[in-house]
Task: structure prediction
Amino acid sequence: PNQTAHHWESLPEEQFAIPKLQRHLDQKYRLNFLYRGLYSLQLKYWLPQFPLNDKLHVVQYEKFKAHPNQILNDILEFVEAPPHEFQDELVTQDHRPLLSKRIKAVHYLNNNTRAYLVRLFRPYNEELATMLGVEWRNVWE
Result:
């Protein structure tokens, strides 16, 4: 992962242009963790087939974590299922496999890396907000 992060930090500034970066990602890093975070690139292929709010419902993870019962009931409403009162301990319980629970996540990014990632993701997050609505603008900044 450190080599990947270092590679991304060394990309020339012109790589931030969406078409060039998209081609670069498509050719070399399709399975890369950074590519998976470029949600607008992924959604643009789904939206023509599954119109938003008609066939596709997108949920912000942060909203789900903050209000799991509400979000789950929004999803039930979307699929035309009756509402349900979910037990808090089941909704908030960590369901990851035991091994991944033992791995401690490090939540530290130095300021340069954080600034780099904000700059890298900004055009894609703006595109996502254009696709999904104003409530998605500046969600991760």
